[in-house]
Write a structure and sequence with these properties.
Layout (H helix, E strand, L loop, with lengths): L5 E4 L9 H15 L5 H5 L6 H11 L6 H19 L11 H10 L3 E4 L6 H8 L7 E2 L12 H9 L7 E5 L2 H10 L2 E5 L9 E3 L7 H5 L1
Parallel strand pairs: 1-2, 1-4, 2-3, 4-5, 5-6
Bound molecules: 6-O-phosphono-alpha-D-glucopyranose and magnesium ion.
Length: 213
């Protein structure tokens, strides 16, 4: 019997091919503001919550704005993003997501979502995988990554100790959050995540039986 009883997944860039849509929405906003913003700049925003992402972009542009203007711009970016995900289907699932979720359920593992995105429940519905998640940590109730809170909320919901949990993340801030939670940290994606315990290009490259052994 494996000591691992629960899995906690990030969403954007792990389950869903939506990290590019966050980038496109930020890029559109940055263009409107006249702030140069590249895909490379965007790497630092992965896993980072909405307001802190915007603050990062404003800092790149050396722009100081009042809080109400920052709120307005964050809502504007979110409008772009919500439009972008409104037509998504299961085609936007990343390779191996459905198979891994199915196999984990068959093995009786508890499955939670630890995404910083307030759009996560709507996106899971669009992708047709909402039912696979027994628990979705609410980013409104928790400190943003790299704090461990979203991951710890999953362990708490399942009444499991951190040592019984594995976390999956595509972003440095997320890997730090998993480590701080005391879970095993699995990196996903092509961008090297040196702080992950182990990394796979996609969920399709994971042998769950081997991971649990
Ligand atoms: C995830 C994404 C970030 C995004 C954050 C907040 O962590 O990786 O790019 O900024 O969620 O998403 P939201 O949908 O709430 O703006
Ligand atoms: Mg992510």
């Amino acid at each position: 019997m494996s000591a691992i009883k629960g899995l906690a997944f990030d969403l954007d860039g792990v389950i869903a091919d939506s990290a590019t849509l966050h980038f496109a929405a930020w890029k559109r906003l940055a263009d409107e503001l006249g702030i140069p913003f590249t895909a490379e700049d965007n790497e630092a925003l992965k896993g980072v919550d909405r307001i802190n992402s915007l603050r990062h972009i404003l800092k790149l542009g050396q722009r100081a704005l009042p809080d109400d203007e920052i709120e307005r711009l964050a809502a504007r970016k979110n409008g772009f993003y919500v439009d972008a995900i409104s037509t998504l289907t299961a085609d936007a699932l990343l390779p191996g997501a459905t198979a891994l979720l199915d196999e984990a359920a068959t093995r009786g593992l508890r499955i939670g979502l630890a995404s910083a995105s307030r759009n996560a429940p709507a996106l899971l519905e669009r992708l047709g995988v909402a039912e696979a998640f027994e628990f979705i940590a609410d980013p409104a109730d928790h400190l943003p990554k790299p704090a461990p809170d979203l991951f710890l909320a999953c362990a708490r919901a399942f009444d499991l100790p951190p040592q019984a949990m594995i976390g999956f993340e595509d972003a440095p801030a997320g890997i730090e959050a998993i480590r701080a939670a005391g879970f095993r940290a699995i990196g996903i994606g092509e961008t090297p995540l040196p702080r992950a315990d182990v990394q796979f290009a996609t969920l399709a490259d994971i042998d769950l039986a081997a991971l649990l052994a």
